[in-house]
Design goal:
The chain has 314 residues and is mainly alpha-helical. It contains twelve helices and no strands. It has one domain.
């Protein structure tokens, strides 16, 4: 009877952990589905306009859930297991703590996304001709990707990645009780994750942040370096891959599979689709581009060429 009394709760707990993993994966699939629908025909390549702040934030949060949930399940499960252990010992284990942990994680990534939006928007507002796609744009995009490769080999990257790959150590050393503690722990884990992955996200901006294909590519790299048992192999392998990709984007962008060139017909169609969404009232992301493009064309007929030729300019 004692054995049954001990093993039954453990079996129930194990089932709940599998349910938790399945829930994260289902949410990731839902996130990918929503992202694919919202980003359809919006990939204009490197320098794609991010749209209005409201559109960007909602799209970014959903995108983070899609990209990150398959990689953070070990951390979330360990957190839930510690909560379950405390509950079994009669200690405080508030309902909803795991959900708050995940929410805190998304809060940190939302802040990081806002920083990225601000940097990208300021860079575009400068309208530097030397960075237009038909001039220095490919070198800028390729340089960002190579810089991400270099960051892979830095001590800071190693520290952040180690935190992400050792969930039990993180949970035990950073434990905070209660729901507020769960939220704080989620934000702290999110901060380590941002430290680990921010350069890969910068590479995504350089490749085309509205491209679902490149989102999948970056998400796969993140999953590999966090989940593959061989940390050094994953880390250095990704660095080499990014160097090759960065050089290809800089020197021969037309030969990079899946890369939309800002001066290509595909990019022009993407911007046209953005304009049509704005006219129909469904595409907040396109309002700025459409209005600015039309204004420039009315004044001098150069706005469309500027967007197609540069991608980096407003």
């Amino acid at each position: 009877m004692e054995t049954a009394g001990i093993t039954a709760p453990r079996s129930a707990a194990e089932r709940s952990w599998w349910v938790l993993i399945a829930t994260l994966l289902v949410l990731a699939v839902v996130g990918w589905t929503i992202t694919d629908e919202r980003m359809h025909d919006m990939d204009a390549g490197p320098g794609t306009d991010l749209g209005t702040l409201g559109f960007y934030v909602t799209a970014w949060v959903v995108m983070m859930a899609a990209m990150m949930f398959p990689s953070i399940w070990p951390m979330v499960v360990i957190y839930s297991r510690v909560q379950t252990g405390k509950q079994e010992r009669g200690q405080e284990a508030p309902i909803g703590a795991t959900a708050l942990f995940i929410a805190g994680y998304l809060v940190t990534w939302t802040v990081a996304g806002l920083v990225g939006y601000a940097v990208f928007d300021v860079a575009r507002s400068l309208s530097i001709d030397a960075l237009s796609w038909d001039r220095g744009g490919p070198y800028l995009a390729g340089g960002v990707i190579v810089a991400a490769a270099i960051y892979q080999l830095t001590p800071l990257k190693d520290v952040c990645l180690s935190k992400c790959r050792n969930p039990l150590m993180f949970v035990l050393h950073s434990w905070q009780p209660g729901r507020l503690g769960a939220l704080r722990m989620g934000t702290e884990h999110g901060a380590w994750c941002v430290g680990c992955c921010w350069a890969l996200m910068a590479a995504l901006f350089a490749l085309g942040v509205m491209s679902v294909g490149w989102m999948v590519f970056i998400a796969a790299l993140i999953a590999i370096e966090k989940l593959l048992p061989w940390k050094a192999v994953a880390n250095r392998g990704i660095a080499v891959l990014l160097v090759v990709l960065g050089l290809a984007v800089a020197l021969a962008p037309e030969d990079v599979p899946g890369l939309t060139l800002p001066d290509s017909p595909d990019a022009a169609r993407a911007m046209e689709a953005m304009g049509m969404e704005e006219e129909s009232g469904g595409g907040g992301a396109m309002g700025t581009m459409d209005e600015e493009g039309e204004g420039s064309m009315e004044e001098g007929g150069t706005g469309g060429d500027e967007m197609r030729g540069g991608g980096m300019k407003r």
